[in-house]
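Students often ask what a 'structure token' actually looks like in practice. Rather than answer in the abstract, let us consider Chloride channel protein, a protein of 838 residues. Its sequence is given first.
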Amino acid sequence: MSQFVASLFKKYKACGDKGFTMMENPGYISGSFDRLHHPSDDDDDDMVDIAGATLDFSSSDDVPPLSSGNRGMTTSRAAGMNGNGPSKLVDPLEDPVPGLGTYEDFNTIDWVREKSKDRDRHREITKKSRQSTVALLHSVSDAFSGWLLMLLVGLMSGALAGGIDIAAHWLTDMKDGVCLIGFWFNHEHCCWTSNETTFQERDRCPQWQSWGELITGTSEGAFAYVVNYLMYILWALLFSFLAVILVRAFAPYACGSGIPEIKTILSGFIIRGYLGKWTLIIKTITLVLAVSSGLSLGKEGPLVHVACCCANILCHLFTKYRKNEAKRREVLSAAAAVGVSVAFGAPIGGVLFSLEEVSYYFPLKTLWRSFFAALVAAFTLRSINPFGNSRLVLFYVEFHAPWHLVELAPFILLGIFGGLWGALFIRANIAWCKIRKSTRLGHYPVIEVLVVAALTALVAYPNSYTRMSGAELISELFNDCSLLDSSQLCGYKQPANTSETGVGNSLADRPAGEGLYTALWQLALALVFKMMITVITFGMKVPSGLFIPSMAVGAIAGRLLGVGMEQLAYYNHDSFIFKGWCSPGADCITPGLYAMVGAAACLGGVTRMTVSLVVIMFELTGGLEYIVPLMAATMTSKWVADAFGREGIYEAHIRLNGYPFLEPKEEFDHSSLAVDVMRPRRSDPALAVLTQDGMTVGEVEALVESTHYSGFPVVVSPESQRLVGFVLRRDLLISIDNARKRQEGVVSASTVVFTEHALAQAADAPPPLRLRGIMDLSPFTVTDHTPMDITVDIFRKLGLRQCLVTHNGRLLGIITKKDILKHMAQIANRDPDSILFN
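Now compare that with the structural description of the same chain:
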């Protein structure tokens, strides 16, 4: 039954909202070597992995060899394991045992062992480089491979992002009409070459016809409107149906934002296939379809997932990264920066986003390479020029009027709104996702997506601000009205003297006209609709980002407040608030700036980003003078949202899905000790251990088969319980299986020896099996009276799989990451059994 449930999980579990209820497990993982290829049988007591691409354990190319480093992880030659004399240590690059030192799906990596392997490899290459020119060239190519990989990641991610932008723009316009001179042109490109456009109707040209005009022959009248309405809904349903069907059929991991899972992957967990080639292909295609369907979602978050897929796939071209999970995660951290770089055209903001929001381990070398990869990706996207405006984003703006100190009050007010909206959204979305999980709604993801898409299209079409895409809406709201604008948001009453202009091309503050009042009512309705529909959209089984919907909500609120401040200043320029800096005929208030600040505030309230968010918004506008308003609104938003809960939306979804992720930002302030958390507890059976020289192969196999642990401490004897080392169940079974197949004399009665020298045996006894090479001789230990806050810090900063608890050198028990997470859940009055999906 457990295998059946696990197979269902591997096929359908993948995304933000749909987690499986986690069940408690007494220990690590059980099963014979033949079952190692079924990682879904695992219930790793430590952790749940989320790592990269689909790796085939049967191929030695994708299997990292066991390190011969200073932590005792050397592999013994097949000839040396039969006990005929001392074992001969082997160079892992020459004679690796396939599968040894690798990790199962839904498991965790050993950061310390992986770093040790890389140091040993680097020392070996440096040593050989002094001996020959060929080895020196190999050393140089090894050092350069990281930069070459970053170049390839940047090029591939930038090219894919450009293609996604172009395709999404085209399909979005296809819902409204078609270009007669070429159906592959979007609306803007179709009218570029037309000489029949007018200033007032610059988006209309004979070459582009709406569906109503194409079918009825006229663009006016109720029948043409109904035809356009129906075609809009039909296209939205078609795009959303294709998106959810492709995800469900080919790549279940391609749904959602991907950032919660990326955060968990970067913390050291493995989900094979989550960053694989099929996920990349399907996510790229369905992201275009989902964005084009008009659903309240964005492509910015999923672009981080796409960039990480590119990085993971390209890692297989380089042995250094293919065979070392820790090194691969350094590349994935850089890829997260690339994803934000191509999403917002903000290379520096992308690097800071990776550092602040997603990365678990971010050394200085990764910072440099992230910057280089983000630069390459931004340059590639700029070369493609997907929006035709020589910019990297659709809503790039430049403001010219300065802001004034008095305006800090409304900016802080926007920060308060952003914090309240962020806290409300997180609670509402998590509640809706729990409903989806616990009711029959979760069994019908296709119907759910179609219903939400139909509802969105039905309500959105009559309102021009909800009908347009999220990026176009933000661009419209960020826009600073000038003499050449014909937008409804610029529907002011024209001054008698048209020479009264503000700074640059912007007009002086003017009284609101009929068009502006209409636009404000439409924006108010759009605000309510966006706030409600985004709650139920995020987490569905299609690629869905949250950046654009959150920014759209904030931008609408900011624009409404900005217009209100503008009119207040126009009619009360003699009051004490405005007197002295806002004279009649001056351009005092910039509503577009308020929209930008509101967008940053709402996005910060939802994600709890601070520094990276301010830099991203600064790179969007190109104005240094607006950093202070952005900082004020962002910090206010974070403080207000934190007052209702310290979790951002991604952390909330990590907890919802039960990913065993130790949040670095979460403080542990309980006074418990290691002995309170370790296992075995008083009512549990004794800890299963191996002895260093007193067990046979049959006894070891029986112990493994009868327990559910993925690792075993090695002690001197059952009586003394003096700790010798720690051996992983996977390495133990692979070594025994390899010895039985490749060495003579290894039988069930053979003694398993973890010491350097085997004890004297009878002449007719089978040769011992020497397994000291797979044992970790320096496992991390704490005493039973170590405070848990220190233990938690050790797990966070070293990325440990487990930690052994001793008293005066005697083994008492073990603490795994799952034990810590369960303990923290109990302290927070949460269900401890929600940790780890089974």
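One point worth highlighting: Residues 56 and 62 are 6 Å apart (CA to CA). Ask yourself how you might have guessed this from the sequence alone, and why that guess would often be unreliable.
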